[in-house]
Amino acid sequence: MHRNTLLEQLSSNTLKLSKSDQKVAAIITSEPAAVIHYSIARLAALAGVSEPTVSRLSHKLGCDGYTDFKLRLAQEISSGGRLFVENMDATDNTQTIINKILSSIETSVHSMQQSTSAASIESATAMLADSRSIYFFGIGASGPVALDAQHKFFRFGIPVVAQTDYINQRMMCSMLGPEDAAIFISYTGRTREIVASAAVASERGARTIGLTQQGSPLAGHCREVLNVVALEDTDLYTPMTSRIIHLVLIDILATKLAITLGEKVETNIRAIKRNLQATRHDG
After folding, report:
1. How confident is the model at residue 90 (pLDDT cuts 50, 70, 90)?
2. One domain, residues 148 and 40
């Protein structure tokens, strides 16, 4: 049975829309690729209606709220081939490019606030706090995130390794045990190599954590999933905002772990700062 898309619903007579709803609908249907970057306040202002009006329209369309509406709209228009590199156009000037990218990041971070579970962060932290070693795995665009995580986590006094090569990942995962933690980073959670490595780590009994989307193939091999949501179609281009969200999640996890470990981490950081003094110029 065919389910009408959001744009089809807004363009048809299937919904009973008030005059205020129609003003919002007109903007959405005329420029859907731009709307996915609008805050609820901006869309309401452009339509000349209140923010609750926009929220109610989102619910009329079967969404959980405005954030859910934007996520579904982004998926809908990207699958139709109308979304290209943050909605960039060849005629965009520099300031427009800056505005579009920053707006996309702002929207994705806001979406992250709605989708990130404090319970999942606490669960992942508990798994890491008494681990014998921590491994970060990422391929392609997720590789730099894994390396950044290594840079942050090594100062906690727990052996940390980041690996971005698939063959080395498989070898490392083959040697993991129940006291080791393995964190797999993939926005889509569909990359065959990273999913295969996670399966090996899981079979070895390692403490597997996924920075990925709930319900993805990768998530199926992880004990804990830190859900990642961004308004991007990675089948069309290399992700930008999703990588930033991964980095933010790493920061959140590192901060929570540092607080959990307490004085031990403070001692390590003081020692690092003291030993780095000699590498810096005075002044």
Report:
1. low
2. no
